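batch job 7 of whatever, protein = Cytochrome P450
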Amino acid sequence: MTDTGPSSARPAPPGCPAHADAVRLAGLGYQQTPAQLYRALRREHGAVAPVLLDGDVPAWLVLGYAEVTYVTSHDELFARDSRRWNQWENIPPDWPLLPYVGYQPSVLFTEGEEHRRRAGVITEALECVDQFELTRDCHLIADRLIASFAGSGQAELMSGYVHALPAQAVVQMCGMPASGADTQQLVDDLRISLDAAEGDDPVAAYERVGERLRQLVKDKRVGPGPDVTSRMVLHPAGLSDEEIVQDLISVISAAQQPTANWICNTLRLLLTDERFAVNVSGGRLSVGEALNEALWLDTPTQNFIGRWAVRDTQLGGRLIRAGDCLVLGLAAANTDPQIWPDSHVGAENAAHLSFSNGEHRCPYPAPLLADVMARTAVETLLERLPDLVLAVEPEELTWRPSIWMRGLTSLPVRFTPVVQ
């Protein structure tokens, strides 16, 4: 066995990652300020830390920028097929993270040539999305949403705007109505399956998402249209209905929740950071910088599970056993002091890992489409409500209790009422 990681200075811990120093990632007191957790883990463990997932299931959290880049660039060592996991015998059928790691015939879990075939279908379907038309659609959606609260002089933006806009945009892009009870149920179930609150059933929610999209695929086989789903159905690669359903789940979930939280985190930055206050006031000067800085400092997808070791190897000086699970610490990597030694993140630099890296990164042009949705959402809101301010003190804002997604529980604002 050879050391394949970029660093091998630290001694490997004995046995599996569930040793005495492992840190529980569930129920953390650090959820409001995860950066503190990442700093503490780095001090104690270096770039790769032993952690415990829900139910004390052992895994590794990869914290270093170089190490995350290495893992995502070496599929032959750290692969995506979760059936390799050496912990399956300890996973109950109602495990809350099962929607993340339970093997599905999805592009997320494919490897090699099969992954390139499936990702190619998604890429070509997304490439046909006209970005000018998407911008127009997002403007129209934004105008409708803003009109619903503009006359009141106050709003809670997370529920009334931030989550609704990308949700409506992406389902419309995939050939569903932008609004309606059916669409809202799909969006709610996606949220539950990816980031369940107490009392939610993420496994059942995931099953409902699959059922709705199976019907969508059947409908598009009968009557295709100018949408992503139809282009996947008609693609010469000849994907099965179930393959398309699973890949649509990946496309919609990746576009909706992360983009919504990207909008949220950018708006929080613009409304709380005095560096942007003068420049933004009703204009667009700093929106692009704020969008990029939010990806560095408050990336929507904080951690991603995961990769599974193909064979015994080493990473960051840690012994990684065949079948071990690695959680990609995207937020920790983005703020790694090894790349920002002066603790200053340059907003003009776009080398963040927020869309991951390597063959399994978000397929092109998904990041560009997400940028269209996020930028249009932020700019339209500031143009329509130029004196928008927080309705609470910045320190009263609270983050969702999740180690996976980074976003606020609510974003209350006030402004001069606008007569429609």
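notes: The chain has one domain: 23-414.
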